[in-house]
Amino acid sequence: MADKCAWFINLDENDTAARLAAAQLGPYGLAVKGQRWPTEDKAWLSSAQEAADAGAAVVLAIGSPARQAEGAVRRGLALFRLALQTRLGRPVNGFALVTGEPDGAGDASMGNAILGDWARLDGTRWQAKVVARAHAPIAPPWPVRLGLHAHERLGIWLETHPAPGKTAAGALVGVAGNAAKIDFHAVGPAGGMPERSVNEYELQGLQFEAAGQAFQAWGLRNAIAPDHSYYVRLDGEPDTLAIGALPDGELEDVSLIAMG
């Protein structure tokens, strides 16, 4: 296992700010490794694998306010975080270091967000915060359990449990935005794709609206134990997830989670 490191992601073309920040972190005894953020399709997947192999314990995304706010960048970073945490089997905290003039806008997002706890650094005395989170990460405050698994032949699978630590009366996942869809699902032990799944009371292609967004969803009424998960295969990269249980086979409340 590689030693812990701070993983820098440079979102800008110019790497001056990233190099300066890395040099400032050096005296704090935490190794620095990283990358320039790629633009290729699903490049977040190889980036997450590389970061995991390098022992990434905390992430710093460095870029201009406009770059940090781009929908495609935030979706990619959200998927990167899920894949990295799943591969490492532990939470990984992150920070946003903004270059240039701040835009004055906050990190507004709807409800919960995959990157909702990635705080902006103010440029002073931030190094201690980064080192602290590398050695003592805080679990993200999502109301559901989330993970992400990638298979060359089987595709990209979101793992979720709508009631962490409890048995759920089924599960449902909906996706909205960016023309994303779900095209397969299964239930099985947490932490990896199940080899087989007995699906009870299936819902496929369910459509509903929440918070002004149109969702396409799949679900199962299987009882899902605390150590099991519901898996859905993603076709595309959604803007928002809707995750809930299926008591009595009916859709009730869902948790909305922004991919950004």
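Above is the first protein from milestone M3; the second protein from the same milestone is given next.
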Amino acid sequence: MNVSRNVKPRDLADWPACRYLALFFWSWTALITFGHVLLVTVVAVAWAQPLSSVVPSVEVTLIQIGLTVAVLLPLYFAPGVRRLARSARYALLGPLATVIVLAVLLRIGGA
């Protein structure tokens, strides 16, 4: 028995569907995170208003990004998740990122 032989695990869940799921969930996350900032900025510029109304939206966006990174970074490097293929990891963590961003927007942005 040769124990020094290094066997690579096969890519678990590296299906084309994982790429589309990851794209779907992460695009929703980006839309929820940056959509309201872009909308308020465009409306303020179109109506020649000062951009001071954008500042609260930017603060909410920074909180969303920070909280998402703080939660998902340790999960991304967790051994069980690390074994998955890259597209499967993104597809797995995408819904969690969407939930985090939406919860922050509804909790802080809605107040």
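Note on the second protein: The chain has a mean pLDDT of 85.
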